[in-house]
TrEMBL record:
InterPro entries, per database record: Fatty_acid_hydroxylase, Sterol_desaturase/TMEM195
Naturally occurring in which organism (per UniProt): Iamia majanohamensis
Bilayer topology term: Multi-pass membrane protein
Name this protein carries in UniProt: Sterol desaturase family protein
GO biological process annotation, one example: membrane lipid metabolic process
Length: 384
C-alpha cells in the first residue's frame, strides 16, 4: 500500500488537532497569526493535494503518445519544436534587417544607402516577423520542453533502470537496504528541491507549494501537479545501485510522510536534533520570503545536506510566509499555472534566444532582474 495514501486519516486528524491548538492559542494571546487556518486557503491547499494525485495520471495519458522514442506522435512533437525554432530565428533576422539603422556602428549600413525597393521588402519581412515571432517562440519552447521532459522521464524511469542495472546487483529488502534507500532518496531529494528553486522551469512546478501566505499542516498538502514538465535528478539512479523498485517506493513514502509534520508553527525548536534533522523550525525558514531565508534549507529528513552545500539558515527573525510577490488568489487553476503562464508570456515578449532560454532555464531571480533592466512590469508571482 502507498504509505502516503494510508496516512490520509492521520493527515486530517493532525490538522484538526493543530487547528484546535492554534485557535486556543489565538484566544489566549488575542492575536491572530499567519499560521492559523483560514477556510479558503485550507480548501485551496486540499484541492491542490487532490490535484497532485489526479492530474499526473491524466497528464501521463495525454503525454505518453507525445513522448519521443515511445509514443507515435513523438517525432511530430520534436519536428514542431525544431520547425517553430527555425521560424523564430528567421523572424528575428527579418526584424533586425528591417529595423532602420540609428547609429554609425561599424558594419551597419546607413538607411539612405539601401535602395528603396530593398528597404520596402525588408520592412514587409520585418512586419511579418513581428506577427509570427511570439507565437513561434512559444510553440518552440513549449514543444521543446515537453519533448525533453517526457524523454528524460521515460529514459530514467525506475523500472527501466532496474532492468539495466550492472551485474544484476540486488541489495534485497533488509534493514540496511531500507535505511540505505531512505538516505539515498533524501540526498537526491535535496538536489531536486534545490534545483526547483534555482531553475525557473522547475520553480514553475514547485511554486505551488510556496504560494500560500499561511503556514500550517494543510500547507504540506499543497503539492505540485505539473511534475511531468520538469527535468529532475532521477531517483531511478537508485535502481542502478541495486535498490529494488518497491524499496524505492517505500523510501518515497517515508520521505513524504516525514515532510508532513514539519509544516507547523506549533512545534518549537528541538535542541540538538536541529543540528542533524530537518525540523519545523528549519522548514519555516524554507517557506519564508524574508531576504535572508530565500532558497535555504532544501533538505527533507536530514538538514546535513544544506550544511554541507552552503544552503543552511537558522530561524532567527519572524518568518513572512508566501512569495516575494504574492499571487493573491485561492483559485487552484491559477495557483497551479501562474508561473508557467508568466514564463510563456516572457518568451513571447523576448527579442532573442538568450533571453528566451534564460526566462525558462535560468533562476527566477534572473528573470525579474531582466525585467527591471528592460523597464518592464514584473510578473505577479515572485520567488521564494
Amino acid at each position: 500500500m502507498d504509505l502516503t495514501v494510508g496516512a490520509i486519516p492521520f493527515y486530517f486528524g493532525s490538522m484538526g488537532a493543530e487547528h484546535l491548538y492554534l485557535k486556543r492559542r489565538a484566544e489566549r494571546t488575542g492575536a491572530p497569526a499567519p499560521t492559523d487556518y483560514e477556510r479558503r486557503d485550507t480548501l485551496a491547499s486540499l484541492a491542490m493535494g487532490v490535484g497532485s494525485l489526479v492530474v499526473p495520471m491524466a497528464l501521463d495519458r495525454v503525454l505518453s503518445p507525445l513522448t519521443p522514442g515511445r509514443g507515435r506522435w513523438g517525432k511530430v512533437l520534436v519536428g514542431a519544436a525544431l520547425g517553430a525554432a527555425a521560424i523564430t530565428t528567421a523572424a528575428d533576422v527579418a526584424i533586425r534587417r528591417g529595423t532602420p539603422a540609428v547609429d554609425d556602428t561599424p558594419g551597419t549600413a546607413p538607411e539612405a544607402s539601401v535602395p528603396a525597393p530593398r528597404r520596402e521588402r525588408r520592412r514587409r519581412a520585418a512586419e511579418l516577423g513581428r506577427r509570427v515571432v511570439a507565437s513561434a517562440a512559444v510553440t518552440s519552447v513549449a514543444a521543446g520542453v515537453t519533448a525533453g521532459a517526457t524523454t528524460w522521464a521515460s529514459r530514467t524511469a525506475i523500472r527501466r533502470l532496474w532492468e539495466r542495472r550492472p551485474g544484476g546487483r540486488d541489495l534485497g529488502t533488509g534493514a540496511l537496504a531500507t535505511v540505505g534507500a531512505i538516505l539515498a532518496w533524501d540526498a537526491i531529494y535535496y538536489w531536486n528541491h534545490r534545483l526547483m528553486h534555482e531553475s525557473r522551469l522547475m520553480w514553475a512546478i514547485h511554486v505551488v507549494h510556496h504560494s500560500s501566505e499561511r503556514y500550517n499542516l494543510s500547507t504540506a498538502l499543497r503539492q505540485p501537479v505539473a511534475d511531468a514538465f520538469g527535468m529532475f535528478v532521477p531517483v531511478g539512479a537508485m535502481a542502478l545501485l541495486g535498490f529494488r523498485p518497491a524499496l524505492i517506493e517505500t523510501a518515497r513514502g517515508v520521505n513524504l510522510l516525514y515532510q508532513f509534520w514539519i509544516h507547523t508553527d506549533a512545534i518549537p525548536k528541538l535542541g540538538r536534533l536541529e543540528e542533524v534533522l530537518n525540523t519545523p523550525s528549519h522548514h519555516r525558514v524554507h517557506h519564508g520570503s524574508n531576504p535572508q531565508y530565500l532558497d535555504r534549507n532544501h533538505g527533507s529528513i536530514l538538514i546535513v545536506w544544506d550544511r554541507l552545500f552552503g544552503t543552511f539558515a537558522r530561524e532567527e527573525e519572524p518568518v513572512r510566509y508566501g512569495l516575494t510577490k504574492n499571487i493573491d488568489t485561492f483559485n487552484p487553476l491559477r495557483i497551479a499555472t501562474h508561473e508557467h503562464a508568466d514564463i510563456l508570456r516572457d518568451v513571447a515578449h523576448a527579442e532573442d534566444w538568450p533571453d528566451r532560454l534564460g526566462f525558462v532555464f535560468r533562476g527566477p531571480g534572473w528573470a525579474y532582474a531582466r525585467h527591471a533592466e528592460r523597464h518592464e512590469p514584473q510578473p505577479l508571482a515572485g520567488v521564494s
